[in-house]
């Protein structure tokens, strides 16, 4: 499968996002300080926005109004209206981060914007009041590379970093519900994977994806994690949080109450599925992961890695209590024959898959 090349940038591309409301619309940002706007029905780039000389590390649409785009550059987040073609002056700017921002995300259920930076901090910004709401800190000991909000659980965000930690936050209080440390040996018997062997690369968290509320009823409370050891980890967050709640309950309850609580959650144990190289997965760090927007939304996971490969996984078929093997989870493999980070976007258009490599957008 030959990828289509979208040209418009003068330097390496850092981020690429697809419109959910308008299939075929793509926005990308790069180290040239430029945002490019593409419509796949057209041959050339529709328009470009030059914000300056600093690289634009991340983009996100405003939930419910994709004419508004947020872009991070250095320690600053800018808010842009794409209808203002005569002047690209930002509507708003936020400069609360003390170190370079790696990713920004907008909540689908509120007016909060999150910005994760190199210091390990995450700034939660209230865009309706145009002020800093909360700082999430003292968990990540290295770069915080990714952040997402959970649409099904208000006031909850999830972050990942290059300290191999995945943290679930109550951002209204600035406290964590739970922290998963991928740097520690896996001892959980509820983890389903193809091979328990550890790759040489550290299990840094490079990317996080969470499904939307309208994706796959009953399975939309999961999270996909792109790891530096070549593994795509899929976690049942609802079960993870229920188990943490149960442990907290056990620590302060008598034995009979503990047994009743264990029985109540017995059918909903923590479930993690690891899609690794033994299942045909990546042989190098996974740099990006996303839930599919085509067909039955969220049915597939799309991952891209430093092995220049794109993988399509049928994760939903294997993410259930009675399933014990993931051997047939890999549906499609595309080798792009070019080393380096890969960003993938899939959209639904006449039942066709569309993929783009980060290096191909140039």
From TrEMBL:
Q: Read off the Pfam families from this record.
A: WD40
Keywords, in A-Z order: WD repeat
The residue spans of each WD repeat are 279-314
Entry keyword Chloroplast? no
Is Translocase among the key words of this record?
no
SMART domains for the chain: WD40 (SM00320)
Q: Which PANTHER family does this entry report, sorted A to Z?
A: TRANSDUCIN/WD40 REPEAT-LIKE SUPERFAMILY PROTEIN, TRANSDUCIN_WD40 REPEAT-LIKE SUPERFAMILY PROTEIN
What's the protein name?
Answer: WD repeat-containing protein 53 isoform X2
């Amino acid at each position: 499968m030959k990828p289509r090349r979208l040209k418009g940038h003068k330097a390496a591309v850092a981020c690429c996002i697809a419109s959910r409301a308008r299939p075929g619309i793509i926005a990308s940002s790069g180290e040239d300080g430029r945002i490019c706007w593409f419509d796949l029905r057209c041959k050339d780039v529709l328009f470009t926005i030059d914000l300056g000389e600093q690289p634009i590390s991340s983009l996100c649409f405003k939930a419910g109004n994709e004419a508004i785009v947020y872009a991070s550059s250095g320690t600053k987040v800018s808010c842009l209206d794409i209808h203002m073609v005569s002047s690209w002056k930002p509507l708003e700017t936020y400069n609360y981060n003390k170190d370079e921002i790696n990713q920004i995300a907008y909540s689908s259920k509120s007016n909060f914007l999150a910005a994760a930076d190199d210091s390990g901090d995450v700034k939660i910004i209230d865009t309706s009041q145009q002020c800093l709401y909360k700082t999430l800190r003292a968990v990540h000991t290295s770069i915080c590379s990714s952040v997402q909000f959970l649409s099904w659980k208000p006031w909850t965000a999830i972050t990942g970093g290059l300290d191999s930690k995945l943290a679930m936050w109550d951002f209204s209080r600035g406290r964590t519900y739970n922290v998963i440390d991928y740097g520690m040996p896996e001892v959980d018997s509820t983890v389903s994977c193809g091979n328990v062997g550890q790759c040489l690369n550290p299990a840094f968290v490079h990317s996080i994806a969470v499904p939307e509320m309208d994706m796959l009823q009953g399975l939309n409370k999961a999270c996909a994690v792109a790891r530096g050891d070549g593994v795509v980890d899929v976690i049942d967050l609802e079960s993870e949080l229920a188990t943490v709640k149960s442990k907290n309950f056990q620590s302060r309850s008598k034995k009979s109450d503990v047994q009743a609580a264990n029985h109540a959650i017995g059918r909903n144990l923590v479930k993690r599925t690891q899609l690794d190289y033994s299942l045909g997965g990546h042989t190098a760090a996974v740099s990006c992961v996303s839930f599919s927007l085509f067909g039955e939304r969220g049915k597939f996971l799309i991952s891209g890695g430093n092995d220049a490969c794109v993988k399509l996984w049928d994760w939903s078929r294997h993410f259930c209590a009675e399933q014990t093997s993931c051997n047939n989870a890999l549906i499609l493999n595309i080798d792009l024959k070019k080393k380096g980070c890969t960003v993938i976007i899939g959209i639904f258009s006449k039942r066709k898959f569309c993929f783009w490599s980060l290096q191909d957008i140039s």
